[in-house]
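**Tokenised fold:**
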Amino acid sequence: MNVQGITWLGTRTPAFGAMVAFHRDVMQLDLVYEEAGFAVFQCPNGDLVEVFGSEHDREHLFFSTGPVAGFHVDDVDAAKAEMERAGVEFVGKRGSSDDGYAWWHFRAPDGNVYEIVSRPR
């Protein structure tokens, strides 16, 4: 597995509006998508920061443990297989987007959930 960096960060917050304003106005990240209780920001290098309001996307309740970081890998399916051979527990189903991102969430030894992500080719 080739980890190339941290390409994604997601966080759930009861202060959704304040966090959107913080990332947009203070951090000066580009707001690339927004809907009720969910916003996506893009860093100049293409990395993404996603902010979830408290009631958005109840499927991903593991966000309650804190922010989730996504490690950029070449191929999420190959990395998942390698990590499972090492005894890593995966959480939920494989995710993907129409623009070519793919991801798997996993539980690390510290008990927190992280993810592996591959970008569009």
In short: Residues 3-118 form a domain with the 2,3-Dihydroxybiphenyl 1,2-Dioxygenase; domain 1 fold (CATH 3.10.180.10). The mean pLDDT is 88. The first strand starts at residue 3 and ends at 13.
